[in-house]
Design goal:
single chain; 458 residues; eight-stranded mixed beta sheet; five-stranded mixed barrel; 14 helices; 15 strands; 31% helix
Length: 458
């Protein structure tokens, strides 16, 4: 049906004194002797549009005041009587498009995010999720704009793969056979499966991305990744969206610069295009959020080695839940302390011990560390994992053999080191984690439409 988006009525003053038709869902309503009022939202704006009902025009508005009902409203746009620089509609005709019963779970009281997770089909109608997913949409678009404007080629890497990019084995198996006692061994099972070998959902498009980068120079992938990691934390989901550029002729300092530019581009875009949403998050989720984002966009990120970070953590006097020792992986509490207390801003932590990082990372001359970096940000911890890739075939083979990896699964990847190998680097940015950072939302389940977590697929 033909109607005008509510956001257009707020943005365009030429609608004042004109007749329009709008559609949306009733968010709030109130009734009085001669007048009734409701606020309508169609999803195009965080702000609701007030509909004024004169009972001399519409005698019985009771069916239009039920929360959650969907309406088509015809009327005249006028300046608001009470709210400066705002508009409302004097209704002349209202049609109920979809009735809503009294047990509609989104009533006027404010609900917890935990409760809203139990009604995923309806939580998107709340102010919080209206704002979250609008920001998510803007960030997704600006990521494409960032890379497209810098001569990157957008590559679609496969979601079904036979290789484990991270070498950790935390992958979801893809099979058409399912449970069966028919096969004596796993090899026999895999041979009779759809692909004739073991297959799984991809944890990353990096390996295939490197193939493309060796032809196009600069590429990026942007799509879902899957990790069967049983981490039931506010930072982990089994299915998430992943941004992964791969850049030929780029060493670690080059890719760090690209990563910082991308984060600042995202923040500046959100500041520019999502001002109303950021005001909402600043008021309800993280006080000072807008000033934090402006400061990040205007200042250089810190750079610190893993070794320096371990020393500073030990000297801090802080009692951490997990031990701090050189050679151990950093936990979220360590990452947040480094970014929030020691550096007080985003920090690239570089040169990690090779034993705790992936096989594909370039080995440093010291023989102990790799040319890798994680970007740690206050409030979240790690949001980017980044490294220069190992371009030396012999060193790469050695790292893979130490980890007991099946080299046949990586024939294509290894061939890149045989035929015109070059220094190259890349990183992975979790879309949900950067959304958490720019909104102040503390749980990753609240920035993705249907979170998939261990023990839950509702």
């Amino acid at each position: 049906m033909k109607h005008t988006d509510i956001i257009e009525i707020f943005k365009d003053g030429s609608y004042i004194d004109k007749s329009v038709t709008v559609c949306g869902w009733v968010r709030t309503s109130r009734d009085s002797k001669n007048m009734a009022f409701l606020e309508l939202n169609d999803g195009t704006s965080l702000k609701h549009l007030q509909i004024v009902i004169d009972k001399a025009v519409i005698s019985d508005p009771s069916e239009y005041l039920k929360l959650g009902a969907s309406l088509k409203v015809c009327g005249t746009v006028v300046k608001s009587v009470v709210a400066k620089d705002n508009v409302e509609i004097n209704a002349t005709e209202i049609t109920v498009l979809g009735v809503c019963p009294a047990e509609y779970p989104l009533q006027k009281k404010r609900h917890t995010l935990e409760y809203l997770r139990t009604i995923p089909a309806l939580r998107v109608r709340t102010n919080t999720f209206n704002a979250v997913f609008r920001v998510r949409s803007v960030i997704s678009a600006c990521i494409h704009e960032f890379f497209q404007s810098r001569n990157y080629c957008y590559i679609h890497t496969p979601l079904i793969t036979a290789s484990d990019c991270e070498g950790a084995g935390e992958m979801f198996k893809v099979t058409t056979i399912g449970y069966s006692n028919e096969y004596k061994t796993e090899d026999e099972y895999n041979e009779n499966d759809f692909f004739g070998r073991r297959a799984a959902l991809s944890v990353s498009g990096q390996l295939e991305g490197e193939v493309a980068a060796m032809a196009f120079g600069k590429i990026y992938t942007f799509g879902p990744s899957f990790r069967a990691e049983k981490s039931n934390t506010p930072r982990h989901v089994a299915e998430f969206w992943h941004v992964e550029p791969e850049v030929a002729f780029a060493e670690l300092p080059d890719i760090i610069e690209i990563a910082e530019d991308l984060i600042k581009h995202i923040i500046n875009t959100v500041l520019d295009k999502c001002s109303e949403e950021l005001k909402f998050f600043d008021a309800h989720f993280e006080k000072g959020l807008i000033e934090k984002l402006k400061s990040v966009a205007e200042n250089d990120f810190a750079v610190m080695t893993y070794t320096e970070a371990i020393e500073k953590l030990k000297q801090s006097g802080e009692k951490f839940q997990y031990p701090v020792e050189w050679g151990l992986d950093l936990m979220t509490e360590h990452e947040r302390y480094i970014s929030e207390v020691i550096c007080k801003k985003p920090v690239f932590l570089t040169d990690y011990p090779k034993e705790i990082k992936s096989f594909y990372m370039k080995q440093n001359p010291d023989g102990k560390t790799v040319a890798a970096t994680d970007l740690l940000v206050p409030g979240v911890g790690e949001i980017i994992g980044c490294s220069e890739r190992e371009a030396d075939l012999d060193k790469l083979l050695e790292a893979m053999k130490i980890r007991g990896m099946n080299l046949e699964d990586y024939n294509d990847y290894l061939s890149l080191r045989k035929f015109g190998s070059v220094p190259h680097s890349g990183f992975g940015l979790g879309l949900e984690r950067i959304i958490m950072y720019v909104t102040g939302i503390q749980n990753i389940r609240d920035v993705i439409l249907y979170p998939r977590t261990v023990g839950s697929i509702s």
